[in-house]
Sequence to fold (538 residues):
Amino acid sequence: MTEAVAIRGLRKVFEGRAGAVEALAAIDMTLAEGEFACILGPSGCGKSTLLNVIAGFEAPTAGTAEVFGMPVSAPGPDRAVVFQEASLFPWLSVRDNVTFGPRMLGRPKDETEVLARRFLDLVGLAGFEHHLPDQLSGGMKQRVGIARCLILNPRVYLMDEPFGALDAQTRMQMQELLTHVWDEARGTVLFITHDIDEAIFLADTVYVMTARPGRMRSRIVIDLPRPRSIELLTDPRFNALRAEILRQIREEASKAMAAIAAEERARR
Amino acid sequence: MTAAVRRAGLGGLGLGLALPVVLVSIWEAAGRAGLVPQGILPAPSLVAEAWWAWAFADPGMGLNPYLGTWGETVLFSARRVFAGFACAILIGVPMGIMIGWNRLVAGAVDPLIQSLRPIPITAWLPFAIAVFGIRDAGAVFLIALGAFFPIVVNSTAGARDVPRNLIRAARMMGANERQLLLRVVLPAALPNIFTGMRLGLGIAWTAVIVAEIVAVKSGLGYVLWDAYYVGRMDVVIADMASIGIAGFLSDRVLVALSGRVLHWKQAVRA
Ligand SMILES: Nc1ncnc2c1ncn2[C@@H]1O[C@H](COP(=O)(O)OP(=O)(O)OP(=O)(O)O)[C@@H](O)[C@H]1O
Ligand SMILES: [Mg+2]
Fold:
């Protein structure tokens, strides 16, 4: 299988006024083409940093990130990003937000319009083309954020807690929508989340990160059948996976707490 | 329904008119009762009469400059404000965006702007006259300079405060540097730019009056001072009122324009 994403010896240190923060220590991971990978880890362990390096938003301090064999140097439409707060352009209509990428890339107009309609349909936003982002609910904004990525036809999707700001009900709807969309669009996905159920429900593989500075602690294969539905949440295999991941997360979270306490003590 | 309407708009307007009406009535009564010398503060009815003649009377042989010349006088000033204000926008907006966007440009240009900004436009008068002479260009220069600073400062703030993720989103969708500036930074900065333009327009009207008093021989500022010299206080007051109306109306035009351009903000508030 082709390697869609290859991270080797990735280290990231932020030089700040308050000193240097080592966000990522040494990350090694590879995602196969078409793999849906979820990353779990305690808050502040460097998950967003990892995603931002792959997206080309941040340069690594050491190590490399490659996407389909090409070293990442800048952001580009081959790696679409879904942000936590949607980050739509508030002055553009839903449709113009979705067609923004193709317009920047100079793609033919009529083809773009057809694609926009198709993807807005797919994410359940038909009829909202002329709404402004601020007239939409959080879940609807996030659907626009997904549609504007789909239209790019990227090789990799990078999603940083895209449903983190949504209420539980909406989040569950969005998870089902995403599995449904993914069945159509395919592509390799790196999905960051805090929600263990979400990770198991969506992923082929779950990566658990250590407390900061972040490393990969484990890779857990989720061999639950697809298509997946909400009933899966009560499946005994699902519960076993959840118990195991929860145990690992807890361990890392308590390490993170201990590290913070030690830092506090050192400061005094 | 009537009560709601009255509370929302008409009632407010009526209330807002009440105070000026009372003040003008007192002023008129005091004038008629001979309590204020009419050569210094002519009664409103006399001002209105002079204003009417200034606006509509037949200029005759053209010996009295305050007959039928109001329209052209207002136009002289308005044209200068328009020219200077347009220059300020054409230079201030692109420059502000570049300063807010690019740290190198900010480092090179911002210190200069910040050190020139505290110099009041009145202090620029001798410089403007020395360079441009008693001509339109001097007035337009002063107006442009005065309006430039609020426009450039607000455009800078607008461009600097574009949410980082909007920039990142545009980049990941394939926008190049030019597209980023025109399609993301500029529209995101527009609310600030309009704030700067409104402030700048106010300064432009101040600047045109100052410039016309000193540096050119036409327009509302020139007439204001000229009428004072020949003791025509009725024209002075009519002139002041004209400046107020012109400033108010041009501001309304700008607000209407910003409402159209920033419809995406209005739509949400409504
Ligand atoms: N631009 C930056 N400058 C300095 N430090 C940063 C910067 N970005 C992140 N950090 C630090 O790097 C560490 C990792 O941050 P990151 O945002 O990647 O964590 P995260 O795992 O995404 O956390 P969360 O789950 O809360 O989103 C944190 O300690 C953070 O304070
Ligand atoms: Mg994060």
Observations:
- The mean pLDDT of chain B is 92.
- Chain B touches chain A at residues 163, 165-166, 168-176, 179, 183-184, 187-188, 190, 262, 264-265, 267-268 (CB under 8 Å).
